[in-house]
Amino acid sequence: MTPNTPTPGQLDLGANVVEGGTRFRVWAPNARRVEVVLERPSGEERHALTRDDDGYDEGVVTGARAGDRYRYALDGGQPFPDPASRSQPEGPHGASEIVDPGGYRWQDAGWKGLGPDGLVIYELHVGTFTPEGTFDAVLPRLADLKALGVTAIEIMPVAEFPGRRNWGYDGVDLYAPSSAYGGPEGLRRLVDAAHAIGLGVLLDAVYNHFGPDGNYLRVYAGAYFTDRHTTPWGDAINYDGPESEHVRHFVLQNVGYWLHEYHLDGLRLDATHAIVDTSKRHLLSEIAAIVHGLPDRRAVVIAEDHRNLVDQIKPAELGGLGLDGVWADDFHHALRTYLTGEREAYYANYTGLLEDVATAIEQGFLFQGQKRPATGELRGTRVTDEPARAFVFCTENHDQVGNRAMGERLAHLIDRERYLVASAVLLLAPETIMLFQGQEFAASSPFQFFTEHNPELGRLVTEGRRKEFAGFASFADPKRREQIPDPQAESTFKNSVLDWGERERHAEVYALYRTLLGLRQTDPVLRHQDRKSTRARALTDDLLAIRRWHDGGERLLLAHFGDQSVTVDAGMLKVLGLDGAAGWSRLYATPNAALPDSPTELASLTIPPRSAVLLAR
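^ thats the sequence. predicted structure below, dont judge the formating
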């Protein structure tokens, strides 16, 4: 039987405070008998639950209140944490804690949510964003992000994970904000403070796998997983097999939980290519419906997916999944291969030419059904009239930095002048843009892969991390692989913590980001996100032009990465569709672009090496 459909905003799993006590509800088909085990000063206190018609064990325990610790015991055996625990104060192996979401007094009644237009997303990892590494420590930086031009922060996964250091993708308690970061109340304070100054908050949610350490789901129900499909992490989550309705309910309740109990403004869905679902209605479609179904405010849902599937961002009424956006990695990969010359792994599918960057800017995706040169596999579907806002562009994110052996950022791989030019290209593209923490001031700290697993699992993680780079030429030597930072070492984590003093020391970088993000919000042409009124062309091997127009106004970015000056000529203007060369004024130029404020003739304008200029008319 299908689980009860929850009232919007009402969680029907886990421990829910009611008048006089707490209602407990859990899906545990592996057991014939389920007890809730309360921790009391005098010892354990056990209360039997009753199986309902939907196959869930439930019951109200009088006197159980917020702050009490509990577990579930199956058939009289060892007690385990609640799969839907709202809080795990002692980590994933400890007792669950009863939380009353009504105990927090929200101050954001006037907040109307977040729509997909004009988004500037800032991805951050709570543990390394500040030296303190907590939700509360983020609060003093929120005003800085708002002033920078960010419209929403995107928090990397916060579900309870083993240890005190983790990227978050080893989370095992989907409903429990990490105790290492400050738990449920800390996350609520962060969201409330963000809304108070006009910042949205998105959460990176992981529905493609569960972490290995502290994952007790199989104790309760083997049907959480299926061997009918596999993922990089092993058996897939069971979204389409026998008893999958209960698994879907567990996840879909989690979606609504974040939106209602934490007032979040949307979700970034991790690696949706690994969410295997052959059901009549795909899980992602149901997630989108929940996100867009809030009665009093707007929210967004964005997928990370490398397949370039346009159906994901098509509206549901047109047969799509109805997501607001998808990470469009082609832009990053094309620009990265041009800037660095890297051609290993998935970079082998890119030419390293600026033409690819221009195509990605104009069309959102570069691969739209073509074969990948390195593998011969077909990738992508055809882009038609999908809006620019549906494609999320970046030059850094946690994957593209942290999945490198040493965790180098783009600013570590190229010179400062070309970094500024690349940043201008990102910030002036019409697509939705996302920044990764610290890139706005060219942070010197890497973002390395770190964990704090138990010794045995930790040893395997360290060995696996180093082994995965054996196929790269620069790490073919085993001695060289030994230099890859140990994920288990505390130093690896500490290396990744931002140094906020660099914002002042790298002032010219920060100034570029703040200026151009300001123009994205205030300039009548640049704030209009429309691919149809955008033309991007590689005018030479090293000169990229982005022309945008709206309501009679025009903007032209000339981004020159080369080592020699280049002069604009009439042929270049023709390629851009420009019918005249006069009437332009300078809106912005990178520090080494010594150009007049009002160039008299665009057709004879000389662009200095490694510089960018934004013109308007």
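Residues 79 and 599 are 75 Å apart (CA to CA).
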